Amino acid sequence: MNLLEVKHLKKHYQTHKAVDDVSFDIQQGSIFGLLGPNGAGKTTLLRMITGIFYPDEGEILFHGKKFNPENDVQYIGYMPEERGLYKKMMVGEQTLYLAQLKGLSKKEATQKIKYWFDKFDINSWYHKKVDELSKGMQQKVQFISTILHEPKLLILDEPFSGLDPINSNLIKQEIFQLSKQGTTIIFSTHRMEQVEEICDHIMLINKGHKILDGGVQQIQQDFKQGLFKIGLGTMPNPAQMATWHFNIVETHDKAFTVKMNEDSTTNDILLHFIRQDIPVTYFEEILPSINEVFITQVQQTETANARLAAMPLT
Amino acid sequence: MEKIWLIIKREFTTRVRKKSFLVTTLLVPIAFAAMIIVPILLATSSSEHKRIAVVDNSGLFDNKFPDSKGTYFKYLHDQNIDSLKQHYADQGYEGLLYIPQFDISRPSGFEFYSSGQASITIESSINKDINDIIEKKRLEMQGIDQSKMEGIRSNVEVTFKNGRDEKKGSSWVAYGVGYASGFIIYIVLLLFGTSVMRGVMEEKVSRIAEVMISSVKPFQLMMGKIIGIAAVGLLQFCIWGILITAIYSLIPLFFSPESMQAAAQGGGAMAQASHADQVEMIHKMRELVGSIPWGLIIPCFVLYFLGGYLFYSSLYAAIGSLANEDASDIQQLTIPVTVPIIIGIMIMMKAVQDPGSPLAVWGSIIPFTSPMVMMARLPYGVPGTVPYWQLVLSLLCLIGGFIGTTWVAGRIYRTGILMYGKKITLKEAMKWVVRKP
């Protein structure tokens, strides 16, 4: 079931199209990665999904019904990239306030705060002012106040910025945990290694357009370039390597990276070595990292745009 | 609605809990008390006794100067004026009055010596006394009877009454009350306006704004802050009102026992006299204060405070939403909001002198200046000086005005609060007013 369906969403500013005809669906309980370079329109898109902006065109369906910001915001937890807390307010009061604004009663909120503060072992911060905490500690408080009301849709914009590896990991575990419990998560970032690790599904946008949308594994399959790494017991002499099935891209210590030619199969490659009695120690496909896909795709759209712009006006 | 209530509560409690709130709330009534008590004390206190030496070569003034208010005249006969000039201070005199022999039809050559500049009171009272004595002498010489002259003299004081109920009034009190309330509104608009602006800037700079706006509408956030701060202001006014009324009713008590004590300790006639003066002054003051229609002034003050505050604070909120990390741009951006307030106080100062002039009338109707100008006119009387239609029109314009400014400000605010990094000009901000969100 889709928790969120976005259809032909458009948002134009005076000078540029921040989001131009973007559609996508997000399945309930999945972790959806929203990727794009700076200025791609990620924040504008997220602001429309959180009801901060109204789209110029298109529609958003939340739980199968037309998104109604007035009511639906209580089911959404949003941690924006530009985030912060009231500096002079006490940590406990602050989380209580933010939870109440999401519609929780004081009693409920207090219980949940206690649960999470216990879990993160930060009870001693309750009566501290926010500006007495370090940046990383503030991020933890921010995270708790985002998820306190148990949102159905959790939107995290660069959630790990400013966190050390230990706290990053802590938050990451919480994200997985929430996802398992059925929370749908939109994860916006330009840190690709995290995307591969965390997300089930990604969407790449650039200059307001959707470039790519799909499961992480599917995308890797779609953009693979027929590269394999083959480990060998003894390195063959170059004369033995004449074949039309593959080209050697890189030579390693007792291994080659090869690019398979079209029309050939992996067995053709293996047979080539086996026939010449060269022992094969391992054989693996090299899939493109999301980072590579991201860079090539962004560059492609940029050059396409550049070409369009360079065309003489006739 | 529940959310806006939460916001109001937070804005209110965080401010009321601050130490600075307690300090200002208590300091103002104390300053007020000092403002009343100190002048009374100064005016009536029998300070030090001043002794003035009089050398009268004409013989006309012997024992004629009346001793009053701690000034005593000592008549020195057959003394050398030149040596006295050197030594009067050593002999314990504050000053030396020298009266030469003179022609009664052309008096001249009177001189007064003192170590420092003689005070205005001494200067004027000596001049008056000398002229009175000379006048009297001349009357005698013309053969005019003193009592006849008294019968001719006229000393009428017109009683100024206003309104249909012929209330006794004093334009001086109206002036004072008008000036004070107009000025308080001016201070309050600037003070609370900038307080709203700072609050908005804090939210933007500390990056809480977007977090908040994912839970509440920008307009709710803005109005919550504005109303919360207004509540702080009203609470402060209430406390001031209560404390000032208390101090005001306690002043007579404060004076009486002390003066009585002074009298009992053998101060004698002097202390008695000054006590009588004090009581009379307080009495007069109370009568004048009573001549002001407080039942009208106080509710109007609250209305114009709220109206003016809502009118300007939303504009200040909009300006605050344009702020960036470096607060220097803000100074420039506040000018268009601050200037009308300053124009308002300038019109107010004119209006309080001439409450019926066209400038005053229009200034008290146009909502940019009306909170200040109308408060300056009201103590002169409704419907005498300010007809009912002007008051009603002024209030309606103010209500319309703040609905307008709040609408405009809300539109600037909701865009500005989410704009980071780039410097925003006022021209750009005005475009947001007409743009879709």
Write structural notes for this entry:
- The complex is a heterodimer of chains A (314) and B (437).
- Chain A is of the alpha/beta class and 314 residues long.
- Chain A has two domains: 2-221, 3-Layer(aba) Sandwich (Rossmann fold), CATH 3.40.50; 225-286, Alpha-Beta Plaits (2-Layer Sandwich).
- Chain A contains ten helices and 14 strands.
- Chain A has helices at 42-49, 69-72, 91-101, 106-119, 135-147, 165-180, 192-198, 216-222, 266-275, 290-310, and strands spanning 2-12, 17-27, 31-35, 57-62, 65-66, 76-79, 153-157, 184-189, 201-206, 209-215, 227-232, 246-252, 255-260, 280-286.
- Chain A is globular and about 80 Å long.
- The model of chain A has no long low-confidence stretch (mean pLDDT 87).
- A four-stranded mixed beta sheet of chain B has the order 2-1-3-4, with helices on one face.
- Chain B is mainly alpha-helical and 437 residues long.
- In chain B, helix 10 (294-321) runs antiparallel to helix 11 (328-351) and helix 10 (294-321) runs parallel beside helix 14.
- Chain B has helices at residues 2-16, 19-44, 81-87, 120-142, 146-152, 171-205, 209-213, 218-267, 269-290, 294-321, 328-351, 358-363, 370-377, 388-416, 426-434, and strands at residues 50-56, 71-75, 95-99, 111-114, 161-162, 167-168.
- Chain B is built from 15 helices and six strands.
- In chain B, strand 5 (161-162) and strand 6 form a beta hairpin.
- Chain B starts with a helix and ends with a helix.
- Helices cover 67% and strands 6% of the residues of chain B.
- Chain B folds into two domains: 2-41 and 168-434, no CATH class; 50-152, D-Maltodextrin-Binding Protein, domain 2 (3-Layer(aba) Sandwich), CATH 3.40.190.10.
- The A-B interface holds A 14, 47, 50-54, 56, 73, 76, 78-80, 82-89, 97-98, 100-102, 142, 145 and B 3, 6-7, 10, 14, 202-203, 206-208, 210-216, 418, 420, 431, 435-437.
